[in-house]
Predict the structure.
Amino acid sequence: MNVRPRGRRRQYRIAASLICYLVGSAVGAVILGMGIAIFAADSSLVVRLQSTEAADRSWWKSEVPTKERIDWRLRGRRKQTTFPGLEIIEYKAGAFSLETGQPETATATRVDAGWPFFCLTGSSWYLMTASSPPGSPIILESSAFRFETASGSRIVPWRLRPFGLLLNAVVMGLLVAIGPTIWLLARRIERRMRGKCPACGYPTVGVRCSECGRIGRHRHLVPDEPDRPMLTREP
Ligand SMILES: [Zn+2]
C-alpha cells in the first residue's frame, strides 16, 4: 500500500533533480558561449570572405533596426571569422534615401556563440542615415553587448537559440557527469574486489551488508525485513 506513493515521490525527486541538472547545464552552456565570445584567441581566428546568399539577405531584412523603412541591399562579400564555438559575420549594405536621394551605408556584425552548437546570437549595427540635415549615425547592439578586452572590443551575444541551448545543455550535463560516474563505478568495483559492501564500503561477510542493509546481488528479490535472520534455511 505504501509502495506506490513512495515510488511516485521518488519519481518526482528524480524528475526534479533532472530538471535542476538540465537548467544548471544550460546556464553552464550560456556562460561557456559568452566566455568563448570574449576570450577567443585572436591568433586562432580564421577569416574568410564569402559571397552572400539568400539566407544572409533574409537575416539582414529581419534584423536590421530600420526595418522596412530603408530598402538595404547587401554589398560585396561577407567576412566570416570562425573559432571553435564562435562565428562572426560582417556585412556591408547600402541604400538610397527616399527622403534625400543620398546614399546610406550600413554595416552589421552578427555573432553566434556556443559549444558544441551555437546557443547564443546577437548583432552590432552601424547605420549612417543620409537624412537632411545630416544626423549622427545609429550605432547599437541588438541582443548583444560590447566587452572591452586587451586586444579590442568584443561583441558578446545573449539572445538564446533554444534548440542549440537544449543540445548544449545535454552535452554539458553528460560531460559534467562523466567524471563522478567513472569515480563511483571504480570505487564500487574496487570495494567488491576487496570483499567490501559496494554501497558503503563496510567489510561484508554474508549476503547482506550489516552496516547499510544492502543485499548482495539479490537486492530486489529479497524482501527487506530486518527482524528476520537472513541466513536461516526454509523448513
Ligand atoms: Zn553496506
Remarks:
- Residues 218-223 have pLDDT under 50 and may be disordered.
- Residues 3-39 form the longest helix (37 residues).
- Residues 22-167 form one domain.
